[in-house]
Specification:
By secondary structure, the protein is of the alpha+beta class. 22% of the residues lie in helices and 33% in strands. The chain has a five-stranded antiparallel sheet with strand order 4-3-2-1-5, with no helix packed on it. Strand 3 and strand 4 form a beta hairpin. The protein is globular. The model has no long low-confidence stretch (mean pLDDT 94).
């Protein structure tokens, strides 16, 4: 069964003539219902990614990823417990809008 995720960041710093990459693009998404993160980086043969529960994510291991996507604000919400305390999906969407996120949903 697929899970729906709100895209927090989708950043691609490759040049226009770049091919496969192990580093770009980087995608961060969050499932409000499942309380999971989806993180991926790379494309083509370099693509790697997956999902992890916010209860189990070791943010220190992912600090460079969050820095690369200007997502420290989101990792701070996980770290300080604010994200877990949002129980209304409309409040979560409001949070995204207040942080200049385009409201876009993906399935994984």
């Amino acid at each position: 069964m697929k899970t729906e995720y709100y895209i927090i960041a989708n950043v691609d710093k490759r040049s226009a003539d770049s091919g496969n990459s192990a580093d770009w693009p980087k995608v961060l998404a969050y499932s409000f219902k499942a309380k999971k993160l989806y993180m991926s980086e790379g494309c083509g043969h370099g693509l790697v990614g997956g999902e992890i529960s916010i209860a189990n994510v070791k943010l220190a291991d992912w600090s460079e990823f969050f820095d690369d996507i200007d997502g420290k604000w989101f990792s701070d919400l996980i770290l300080n417990g604010s994200l877990s305390s949002i129980f209304d999906e409309s409040k979560f969407i409001e949070l995204l809008k207040n942080n200049n996120c385009t409201i876009e949903v993906m399935s994984y």
